[in-house]
Amino acid sequence: MLEVHIPSVGPEKGHMVSTVEVLCRGRRHVVQRRYSEFHALHKRIKKLYKVPDFPSKRLPNWRTRGLEQRRQGLEAYIQGILYLNQDVPKELLEFLSLRHWPTDPKAGNWGSQLYHRPVVSFPMDPYICIPSPEPLPNVVVHGVLQGLYGFNASTAEAQPEAARHPAPTPPTP
Known about the structure:
Keywords: Cytoplasmic vesicle, Lipid-binding, Membrane, Protein transport, Transport. By secondary structure, the protein is an alpha+beta fold.
């Protein structure tokens, strides 16, 4: 998945530069772009793709509040391009300096890719579970229980019911 944010705008070499942060497949990539570069991107893609309105260069208050409005506008513009188009425009990928993006439609399908590791879960409380009549014990469950809780399932199953629960002691007079 591709996420784009503009965390800051600030002066660099006499120009105002936007820091563009790209999160792509678990990796963070940062590029710096001027307003004129955003506008050039807009001119290139507006006839080819669905794009939101481009934010105005003229700001009512150039200082802090105006820069924040521009930052928010440019971030909303880039995110709007991603939202409105099923495929990421190649011009946007070039603008973000992303060279290794899948061109295969199946590889770009978000539903076909997993972005997490497999998860082991217990559908029920393991202490309440009735022992299964399977001929072999579930070594994975026993190992996890032993590792997490110091619970040794093999000794608990081997003990008879009476040995698990000590007999009550009679009250002393």
